[in-house]
Amino acid sequence: MIAPPLVSSFPAASAIGVAAVLLTIAHLLVVKRLPEPNPVPNDAFAKPNYASLVTRPAALGLATFGGVLSVLADRTQSDTWPMWLVYATGVGVLVWVDARTTYLPRSLTRLCWLELLIALAVVAVTSSDAPTDLVLHVAIGAAGATAVLWLVWRLTGGLGFGDVRLAPIVGGMAALGGVQGWLAAMLLGTSAGALTGLGISLWRRRRPSSLGSSFAYGPALWAGPWLALLLR
Predict the structure, then answer these.
(1) How many whole angstroms separate alpha carbon 19 and alpha carbon 21?
(2) What is the pLDDT of residues 131-147, one digit of tens each?
(3) Interval 183-196 mean pLDDT
(4) How far apart are CA 48 and CA 54, in angstroms?
(5) How many other CB atoms are found less than 10 A from the CB of residue 199?
(6) Entry pTM
(7) What is the rounded distance in angstroms from the CA atom of residue 123 to the CA atom of residue 127?
(8) Contact 192/130 with Cβ under 8 angstroms?
(9) What are the backbone dihedrals phi and psi of residue 46, each rounded to the nearest 5 degrees, phi first?
């Protein structure tokens, strides 16, 4: 959909890297102040407190990872880098919380929605594409992913509703690659989730967990657009 330059200048990449670090830290501070779910639905699972997740090693790892992904996105999708920046940092922290707790906090998810809408507005104003086309593609992609995951949640119960709330973010980002990019991202993300679930199931046969067969599906969904981007 968008034909970006193959390389970006070093100052621009450095600025994006710094912005990624700052955004990651800001979201970790939000995580540290998240209210705990009350009551916890699965009493057998000793969910770690949100505040306890925010450590210096975690902050360093997430900031580095978010910075690298943001610069990579700038080099390949420079017209839409503000959206990828939010996706790498804010949404990256969100799915990291999911990986550690199997929860996608509603307030943090809504914050990511808001940030991506702001980033989309910035991209629509500055992009070489027609703003209405860009917004329409993102909206259709978000709606399509939400519909698919809502049906899976409704019919199978194999997903938590937090994954349904994550779906418009993933679908909207996937749509930046056009129809083929959206299909590839959704297929890769759901396949990664299925493989993760299979691996965890086999592992827990030997090492039982209080979670039973439950696992965090959000990180796999989040990875779908990144995998599609790398394959492009």
Answers:
(1) 5
(2) 888 999 999 999 999 99
(3) 92
(4) 11
(5) 11
(6) 0.89
(7) 5
(8) no
(9) -80, 85
Predicted pLDDT at 45: 57
CB 225 within 8 A of CB 189: yes
Give the number of residues written for the chain: 232
Is there a contact between 191 and 226 (Cβ–Cβ < 8 Å)? Answer: no
119-145 in b/e burial notation, b at 16+ Cβ within 10 A? bbeebbeebebeeeebbebbeebbebb
Smallest CA-to-CA distance from 224 within 179, 163, 183 is with 183
Query: Which ranges of the chain would DSSP assign to H, the alpha helix?
Result: 10-32, 50-53, 56-76, 81-101, 106-126, 131-156, 161-174, 178-206, 218-231
Please give the C-alpha separations between residue 223 and each of 34, 87, 117, 122, in angstroms, as whole numbers: 24, 10, 20, 24
pLDDT in tens, 29-63: 999 999 988 765 554 456 789 999 999 999 999 99
